[in-house]
């Protein structure tokens, strides 16, 4: 593999003089004082630059001596940018499209109830949430969304990378665990990840206002759809700094470990203009997910049974 540099040399000359390295050689450069990584089969020395990495030196250090190419984030951007633009707004935020599995907020349950829509017993959604929500979001739903987004958007390079990931995974682990064991291993990791992802993201969103387009200013829309969880060493670590969800929505490109620095400024701005800034303890935030689903389910049942 060729080694990329930071100097502005001509591409043709650089390619002609570009040295090659074996994986054995690359893997030796995984120290704090000596970091190389590979992107698109080019080797980069990021030893000095890693200290200026926007996400922090620890994140990029995870890939020292390894291939850091990865698949394109187009599929995630396609979905998540819509969420940040119009959070918790039906027909505009894909994250509140629950495919008739759950009814959310106060308006949707009543609409479903009046139309006698009963795809599932929504008055029990706070109970079957534990069976459907955390366990299957990433292993099943996200995998389907990833592949379908690539196909619909004709991101064929991304699709090829996705399939190559599975090929490389099974080539690596099948000799140790067999094909079935490799499948179980892959899905077990995603099963654990899915639980964390659902609880951490929904404690900031599903408990907030979920409705149709309110036609209000962007700042107020973000505050109505998000809330924070109190800062502590554990909360920061457990949530990956997504306990500062308000600031994350207002400054989505800011590295998450810096969000706490601007939280006091955002809070003072909200107080100045009379905008509610919600912050709560972690346990209450997690329990509010279930309470919100129970409340919406009861609204559905009342409307469904109403003559």
Automatic annotation (TrEMBL):
Pfam families documented for this protein: FA_desaturase
Region described as Disordered: spans on this chain: 1-21
Entry EC number(s): 1.14.19.3
Membrane-related topology note: Multi-pass membrane protein
Molecular function, one GO term: acyl-CoA 6-desaturase activity
GO term, biological process aspect, one: unsaturated fatty acid biosynthetic process
Gene Ontology terms: cellular component: endoplasmic reticulum membrane
Family annotation (PANTHER family): ACYL-COA 6-DESATURASE, FATTY ACID DESATURASE 2
Protein name: Acyl-CoA 6-desaturase
Native organism: Sus scrofa (Pig)
């Amino acid at each position: 593999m060729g080694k990329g540099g930071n100097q502005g040399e001509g591409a043709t000359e650089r390619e002609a003089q570009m040295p090659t390295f074996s994986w054995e050689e690359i893997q030796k450069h995984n120290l704090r004082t000596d970091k190389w990584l590979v992107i698109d089969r080019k080797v980069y020395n990021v030893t000095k630059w890693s200290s200026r990495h926007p996400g922090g030196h620890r994140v990029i250090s995870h890939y020292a001596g390894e291939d850091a190419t990865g698949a394109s984030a187009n599929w995630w951007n396609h979905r998540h940018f819509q969420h940040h633009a119009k959070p918790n707004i039906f027909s505009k935020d894909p994250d509140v499209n629950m495919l008739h599995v759950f009814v959310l907020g106060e308006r949707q349950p009543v609409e479903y109830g009046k139309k006698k829509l009963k795809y599932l017993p929504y008055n029990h959604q706070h109970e079957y949430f534990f069976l459907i929500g955390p366990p299957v979001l990433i292993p099943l739903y996200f995998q389907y969304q990833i592949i379908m987004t690539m196909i619909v958007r004709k991101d064929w390079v991304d699709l090829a990378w996705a399939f190559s990931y599975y090929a490389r995974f099974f080539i690596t682990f099948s000799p140790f665990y067999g094909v079935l064991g490799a499948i179980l291993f892959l899905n077990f990791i995603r099963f654990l990840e899915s639980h964390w992802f659902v609880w951490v993201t929904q404690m900031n969103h599903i408990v907030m206002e979920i409705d149709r387009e309110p036609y209000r200013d962007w700042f107020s829309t973000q505050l109505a759809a998000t809330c924070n969880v109190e800062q502590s060493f554990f909360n920061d670590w457990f949530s990956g700094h997504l306990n500062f969800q308000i600031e994350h929505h207002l400054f989505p490109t800011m590295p998450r470990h810096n969000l706490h620095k601007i939280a006091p400024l955002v809070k003072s701005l909200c107080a100045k203009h009379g905008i509610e800034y919600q912050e709560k303890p972690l346990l209450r935030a997690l329990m509010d997910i279930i309470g919100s689903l129970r409340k919406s389910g009861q609204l559905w049942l009342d409307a469904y049974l109403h003559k």
